[in-house]
Specification:
The complex is a heterodimer. By secondary structure, chain A is an alpha/beta fold. Chain A contains seven helices and ten strands. In chain A, the strands form two sheets. Chain A has a six-stranded mixed β-sheet with strand order 6-7-8-3-9-10, sandwiched between helices. A four-stranded antiparallel β-sheet of chain A has the order 2-1-4-5, covered by helices on one side. Chain B is α+β, with helices and mostly antiparallel strands. Helix content of chain B is 55%, strand content 17%. Chain B contains 29 helices and 24 strands. The chains are: A alpha/beta, B alpha+beta.
Chain lengths: 236, 903
């Protein structure tokens, strides 16, 4: 049974009755099953569950990367689920950023170019609060501006991904297992950094994780199983 | 192994699009080679059968009597591989007379051919126009009948030698003697076929009639009569001979060399069967020998033109294999994680390559057959053996190509782990060839070898052994090979330099700019390997196309020039000497619609010392209006100056540089020639004056010949006037030739046109038919250039889908993402076209110079086939645009969620 989240204003992201089905017929897989969730501005939410529980799919639905089979997704005053790919991309550029498990940096760009490209896509080259070098300095990589992704460690790559996400000046940051490829110490430092930046930048943060400890760091943790939200914990 | 087969089949089945692409590209690559194999095989067979067919009379064996001729002919006819053996004779004729209603008409000297009644069954030395051979009767050559104004049923009197009693014969037919050169040539088996002055008048009769009537008045030339018949036109006795025609089917199944070997074996066997009784003058082997030399040139040409194309086509197969490398990497990593060894993975790759290779090879062989059938006149003539050889070669090559491409593309997968295998950009050192400037070294080496081989005349020589072999300096092939390598590497270096410069400029010009250009340039600058891969395949393919187009266009241009040189003019009419003057044929032909100018030429023979040379009498004033003279035909002066000098010297003569050298002559020196006195058939000494040096001349043979003023030559040879009319046309030569033939039919002319001459496969190398192979290659190169660009674009998506998905996840627009793709495609296309223009042109220049023996006369300039080049560029550009459109569609449909989950 899905847990209905408290209603939020059009300033956040929400989804109602969202289902995602991959394939059809006997091969159909229901990745999300009638999900309702709402995340307010500046809120920190963890989506917690085992592999295959639907966390990543839900993150992709919230950011408009995947269009739900049924149900609706709202981002601010836009019904994201009804937009075409171009409009969804534009919406993402205007305030939704991702941090993926494997960083997914653009392999032929330096750290600086990765961040600068994100700023350019978001249209924040001229009016950005922070320049790409400043953002990289913020994540502790001031000396790695010209490093290519292949020349960075896993932790460094993830920090570039964070700087890149910040360059988009997001209102919603969606993190998919951001520490999945990192050792525990590095992972903890990355999480500390993300949380600190959330305090500074004020974006809503949704983190998908299989790690209960990581989930526990969020004020609100929705537990997922077989494509459904089966429980929610709040702290503080 | 069964597990590998199952896994390979499953892998291929799971990605049908990529499997199909790999099969199609491999099939196209091997189809090019298969097509060439079929074409070359066909071409060699055609050359053989053409050489065999072109000989009207294969062997002539001189004997001492009719009895001996009949006995040997009967024995030879029973030998295997012999189509016909006839006891025949040739003899001189001092004159003929016909008395008709208009009075009595006589002819000058001529010749008699005596043949058995069934002679024409398989031997075609003459063609009956009307009537036929009859006991006691005579068949007159058309010119002789025309001169005598004799009809079938009339009685003519033939005189064997001056002073002998004329013999009466009833005219039983009229014929055209088509092989006078061979029939009346002096027969000396030790020397082989010799040049001869064909008689102006020929009478044909049955052997028994001849033996009963004319033979008793003539002496017999015996095989021990030294020099009895070595002087053409001066045969003074009966030459009894056995004429033999071989079965062409037994000879024309393979290459000219093979046919020559078989013909020689047959001749040796027949001669061994009649020890000491007969030795043959072998006209067939002479023709096959020339053809075998041409075939070797043709094979060298095909290799130089075709092999680079086939190699580049296989490079395309490598590009196609790269399209599935990401999937292969995942599959291999999974298999390795489950315990598969590298050997197992290699076995899997081998099985997969075999499956792909068999399908692609068979498909390629089918396409090759269809292409040859469609694009080559005469078709593929596929037999079971040829089909098996071509199919087998295509399958073997496709398997090898698929395996090489697969292993080349997956080598990182076989070596390392999944993460290690994923390509990431790094700042590596420049490759060793760039550090050591091997590109420039290759270009310098190419230039040096080219210069060295050019200075030695490229030394491509057909060795006139019993079976010809071609001596090509192996260094000749290094020059173009090094040019291919050097130019490609230099372009790769320049591409890197130019991109680096553009990146620096973009970054410096617009710091902090919101434009996309700096990102696109930065990305392209770090994707050197991928861009170079596409650039090399596309650039080389286009360069190959340009090289092929220019070379074949130049070849065809020169074939036309050669045809004009061989034939003499656009249209050439040959008639009896008296007819040309009496009926004023030159003026008559000049009035035919489409003819812009005419000039009458006298073709005769004269001796310079012991050498019999063709001699041309021309009207220096009108000659250049009727045909083309190039400056390169003359030495020491241009065409206009030489003709002016000839015209100003009534007894002037142009001779070859060999004659000048052999007799230590200089301009203005007197030169005594023995000129054929037409009425008597004897040679007499006449004084000429050297007026110039000529090395080529319209309708002249390639060896020594002479050119004089027609008026003087006519006077000293007491000829009835010119016997050839050259005509220049303003429109299609075949149509004009038909009109000329119709207008001069009553004059007994033979009319030829330049198109007919171009198409005719004779013994000259420029008539090796490149049309077929160039059609095949041009069709393939257009398809492959389009495929290469399309593959490059689609490969870009396949390789960068993860990157593009990440950009899209950030919110980058389709236009922005697409810019990374099409900018690289545009770069590859532009650089490829630049490489093609430069390298293609240079290669053409080099190839034309290296194969200078093929081009006779040498081209004044390369011919540029703008139509084909435009089509080639359009195919590449069109395919790029189409691929870009499809790519945009593909980008829109990228399964972002699925891709971004991939690790």
């Amino acid at each position: 049974m899905s847990v209905i989240a408290p209603a939020v204003g059009r300033a956040g992201v929400s989804c109602t009755g969202v289902s995602v089905v991959y394939g059809d017929g006997d091969a159909a897989v229901r990745a999300l099953d009638y999900i309702d969730i709402a995340i307010g501005p500046g809120e920190r939410v963890a989506l917690w569950g085992r592999s295959g529980s639907g966390k990543t799919t839900l993150l992709h639905v919230l950011g408009g990367l995947v269009v739900p089979t049924s149900g609706s997704v709202w981002w601010r005053d836009l019904q994201l689920s009804s937009l075409d790919a171009r409009a969804r991309g534009h919406a993402r550029a205007q305030g939704i950023a991702y941090i993926f498990q494997g960083a997914n940096l653009l392999p032929h760009f330096t750290a600086h170019e990765n961040v600068a490209f994100a700023a350019r896509v978001a249209g924040h080259v001229e009016d950005g609060r922070h320049t790409p070098p400043e953002l990289l300095a913020l994540v502790g990589l001031a000396g790695k501006l010209d490093a290519l992704p292949g020349e960075l460690s896993g932790g460094e790559a993830q920090r570039v991904a964070i700087a890149r996400a910040l360059a988009q000046q997001p209102q919603l940051l969606l993190c998919d297992e951001p520490t999945g490829h990192l050792d525990s110490d590095t992972g903890a430092r990355v999480l500390d950094l993300i949380e600190a930046l959330q305090q500074d930048f004020g974006f809503a943060l949704v983190t998908a994780t299989h790690d209960a400890d990581v989930a526990a760091r969020s004020a609100r943790a929705a537990q997922m199983h077989d494509g459904r939200i089966v429980g929610e914990e709040r702290s503080g | 192994m069964s597990v590998s087969i199952r896994l390979a089949l499953a892998g291929l089945w799971r990605a049908p699009g990529r499997t199909l692409t790999r099969i199609l590209v491999l099939a196209a690559a091997v189809a090019l080679l298969g097509g060439m194999l079929l074409f070359v095989g066909n071409s060699l067979r055609t050359m053989s059968s053409s050489a065999v067919r072109s000989v009207a009379l294969d062997w002539q064996g001189p004997v001492n009597s009719l009895g001996q001729a009949k006995k040997i002919a009967a024995g030879v006819a029973k030998q295997p591989g012999i189509l016909e053996a006839s006891a025949t004779a040739t003899a001189p004729l001092s004159g003929a007379q016909h008395t008709g209603p208009a009075g009595s008409t006589t002819t000058g000297a001529g010749a008699v051919l005596a043949v058995p009644p069934d002679y024409l069954k398989h031997i075609n030395t003459f063609r009956l126009l009307r009537g036929g051979l009859a006991p006691g009767g005579v068949v007159l050559d058309q010119q002789m009948a025309s001169t005598l104004q004799a009809q079938i049923g009339d009685t003519v009197r033939l005189t064997a030698r001056p002073g002998s009693k004329p013999q009466p014969y009833k005219v039983s037919g009229v014929a055209i003697v088509t092989a006078s050169d061979q029939l009346f040539a002096p027969l000396n088996p030790q020397l082989g076929p010799a040049p001869s002055q064909p008689p102006a008048n020929v009478a044909v009769m049955q052997t028994d009639t001849f033996a009963r009537t004319l033979a008793p008045t003539l002496r017999t030339i015996t095989s021990v009569t030294p020099g009895a018949s070595v002087q053409p036109g001066a045969q003074d006795g009966i030459q009894w001979q056995v004429q033999v025609q071989l079965d062409p089917h037994a000879l024309s199944g393979g290459s000219p060399s093979a046919a020559l070997t078989r013909a020689d074996q047959t001749r040796n066997r027949v001669q061994r069967s009649f020890p000491g009784q007969i030795q043959f003058v072998d006209n067939l082997s002479d023709s096959l020998h020339t053809s075998a030399g041409d075939a070797l040139y043709a094979e060298a040409l095909y290799i130089m033109l075709a092999v680079p194309g086939a190699l580049i086509a296989l490079g395309l197969a490598y590009l196609a294999a790269l399209g599935s490398v990401e999937r292969d990497r995942r599959d291999f990593a999974l298999l390795r994680a489950r315990g598969a060894s590298r050997r197992d993975l290699l076995a899997l790759a081998g099985v997969e390559s075999t499956i792909l290779g068999v399908i692609a090879g068979l498909l390629g062989a089918g396409v090759a057959f269809a292409a040859v059938s469609t694009l080559v006149s005469g078709g593929a003539h596929l037999t079971t053996a040829r089909a098996l050889i071509t199919g087998g070669a295509c399958v073997a090559l496709a398997i090898a190509g698929a395996a090489a491409a697969r292993i080349g593309a997956s080598v990182s997968v076989l070596r390392g782990t999944v993460v290690e295998g994923r390509s990431t950009a790094t700042r590596g050192r420049a490759p060793f060839w760039q550090r050591y400037w091997l590109d420039l070294a290759a270009l310098a080496g190419s230039a040096a070898i080219y210069w060295l081989t050019a200075s030695t005349g490229f030394s491509a020589v057909v060795n006139p052994d019993s079976n010809p072999t071609l001596s090509l300096s192996v260094y000749m092939f290094f020059a173009p090979a090094l040019l291919w390598i050097g130019a490609t590497l230099l372009l790769v270096r320049l591409r890197g330099r130019m991109l680096a410069w553009a990146v620096r400029r973009a970054a410096g010009a617009a710091p902090g700019s919101s434009g996309l250009r700096p990102f696109v340039l930065a990305s392209a600058g770090r994707r050197g390997a991928a861009i170079n891969r596409g650039l090399i395949v596309v650039g080389l393919l286009l360069a190959f196309g340009v090289n092929l187009g220019i070379f074949t266009a130049t070849y065809h241009q020169q074939a036309k020039v050669d045809a004009e040189l061989t034939l003499g003019a656009d249209v050439v009419a040959t008639a009896a000497p008296g007819v040309t003057t009496q009926h004023n044929l030159a003026a008559k032909i000049a009035h035919v619609p489409g003819v812009t100018a005419t000039s009458a030429v006298q073709h005769s023979y004269a001796y310079v010392g012991p050498d019999l040379q063709d001699t041309y009498g021309i009207d220096a004033g009108s000659f250049t209006k009727a045909t083309t003279l190039r400056d390169s035909y003359f030495i020491g002066a241009n065409a206009a100056q030489t003709l002016k000098r000839l015209k100003a010297t009534p007894d002037g003569i142009l001779v070859s540089k060999e004659t000048i050298a052999d007799y230590s002559l200089k301009l203005g020196d007197p030169l005594k020639l023995r000129v054929l006195d037409q009425p008597t058939g004897k040679f007499r000494v006449v004084r000429f004056r050297v007026a110039g040096i000529v090395q080529e001349f319209p309708s002249a043979p390639k060896d020594s010949f002479m050119v004089a003023n027609v008026r003087y030559l006519n006077a000293v040879s007491r000829a009835a006037g010119p016997n050839v009319v050259f005509a220049k046309t303003s429109g299609g030569a075949p149509g004009v030739a038909r009109r000329v033939a119709a207008a001069t039919r009553s004059d007994g002319t033979q009319v030829k046109n330049i198109d007919q001459q171009t198409a005719q496969t004779t013994s000259t190398i420029t008539t090796v038919d490149l049309t077929g192979i160039s059609h095949i290659e041009q069709a393939f190169v257009i398809v492959l250039a389009a495929a290469a660009m399309a593959l490059f674009v689609s490969l870009g998506i396949a390789e960068r889908r993860h990157e593009f998905a990440a950009m899209t996840a950030m919110g980058a627009s389709l236009r922005d993402v697409g810019a990374f793709l099409w900018s690289e495609a545009a770069l590859v296309l532009a650089a490829g076209i630049a490489l093609a223009a430069g390298l293609g042109w240079l290669l053409s220049v080099m190839l034309v110079a290296m194969l200078q023996h093929v081009f006779d006369p040498p081209p004044d300039a390369l011919a540029v086939p703008w139509g084909f080049l435009g089509l080639l560029a359009a195919a590449a550009i069109g395919a790029t645009l189409l691929a870009a459109l499809l790519a945009a569609r593909g980008l829109r449909r990228l399964p972002l969620g699925e891709i971004l989950r991939e690790q």
